[in-house]
């Protein structure tokens, strides 16, 4: 019998598979699935481009009759609603002869919300709902849109050792090296939309695309935080709270400048901060973030935890997750 630690290990593997689906699975969530039998993976799946087939259907289709008696690890509760695009995954899974289904996250979509689990149990399948960190992290954008009505927001900052994003005269290309810039483009390729402030748009004229071989088609939607007129092909908002109007966007990447970064932080709409720090000192320059209205130093503590850190050439990358009450 699999132990709880085995379940977490297999679910973490399913969550890593789910990463392959971003962002091509939109408007559906990026889900990962593994079929395990006698301690071995017999099939795997992730949500396919355009949202179909779903991860479970993908894995079960690969396994065929070998799925009988296996355990399915899936990061999100199998959908229970029928669609013109395909049958409900709860029905497909119920008919596969599985011994057990382990689910990483409950689906907050009211069309499924518990019905997927109940349908499996009515079919005589043992179901365990883990609510584990790996699945939650892999579904962060989907869960945020369903529970809070807005995208999951990542704020990206590229700065010097002394916290500057440019010289005082505005010169900013390039603070970080090639490895860090390539990493940024890889991160862009996983987002649904990318946002900059009006000042950055006017001074830098950024392309906001993905410039990595084979990934150009994954360039995200472009969004501008400004009170000006929308340029062609760009969505304009004048308040960070308006990101809830972005249709089909689960992941929003905010690249600055200092005013846009401060606006999102002041509104407590940043869920993750990614910092690229170059080993240079600028001195008198433009700071990465302007005033966020912090009332006292104690208010700044206990809000962020480091989740990733690595070296990218001569630059250092670090990621911090917002600590929110529901995740404590």
Automatic annotation (TrEMBL):
GO terms classed as biological process: riboflavin biosynthetic process
One Pfam match: dCMP_cyt_deam_1
Known cofactor(s): Zn(2+)
EC number: 3.5.4.26, 1.1.1.193
Family annotation (InterPro entries): CMP_dCMP_dom, Cytidine_deaminase-like, DHFR-like_dom_sf, Eubact_RibD, RibDG_C, Riboflavin_Biosynth_HTPR
Annotated metabolic or biological route of this protein: Cofactor biosynthesis; riboflavin biosynthesis; 5-amino-6-(D-ribitylamino)uracil from GTP: step 3/4; Cofactor biosynthesis; riboflavin biosynthesis; 5-amino-6-(D-ribitylamino)uracil from GTP: step 2/4
Annotated binding of Zn(2+), by residue: 54, 79, 89
Keyword Repeat carried by entry: no
Binding site for substrate: 172, 188, 208, 211, 255
PANTHER family: 2,5-DIAMINO-6-RIBOSYLAMINO-4(3H)-PYRIMIDINONE 5'-PHOSPHATE REDUCTASE (PTHR38011:SF7), DIHYDROFOLATE REDUCTASE FAMILY PROTEIN (AFU_ORTHOLOGUE AFUA_8G06820) (PTHR38011)
Function, in words: Converts 2,5-diamino-6-(ribosylamino)-4(3h)-pyrimidinone 5'-phosphate into 5-amino-6-(ribosylamino)-2,4(1h,3h)-pyrimidinedione 5'-phosphate.
Name of the protein in its database record: Riboflavin biosynthesis protein RibD
Organism: Altererythrobacter epoxidivorans
